[in-house]
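Continuing from the previous page...

OK, I double-checked the sequence for Transcriptional repressor NrdR against my notes and this is the correct one:
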Amino acid sequence: MHCPFCRHADSRVVDSRTADDGSSIRRRRQCPNCQRRFTTIETASLSVVKRSGATEPFSRDKVVSGVRKACQGRPVSADDLALLAQRVEETLRGSGSAEIDAYEIGLAILGPLRELDEVAYLRFASVYQSFDSLDDFDAAITSLRAERAEREAGSGATPGESSESTSPGPT
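Thanks. Re-ran it with the corrected sequence; updated structure tokens here:
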């Protein structure tokens, strides 16, 4: 790393810390020539390979804008969308690959979106997975219902019943 002050060709790392939720490393460096200190931030690049073969840097903003359309009119906040985009990026970075197919980004979005809002999930999945007929919607809805029934069975509640207990009111 070149010193930004004297342009010396080397520097020494004095301190390293993670930054930005662990997605980057902040390093404090010192130049052995002029003894001045400076900070560098290192991030692992994540590139998206589009269907056309072109590559571009991964963008959380693009994830949010794509999912926002599916969430239009739904009770989903901007913070919810930002968290979803963060989860998607963490999943993609966790794969260990520097280049990700655009298709895999869509797959990484489906799981967290399904947990966030089922209607938004169906909207996004219908476009992303190219639903062609009502049978495609019916299969997706059946899958959502089965998953919900499993969750409710695991919590001890009957379908349509809350798993929270209520105490009787004053007598």
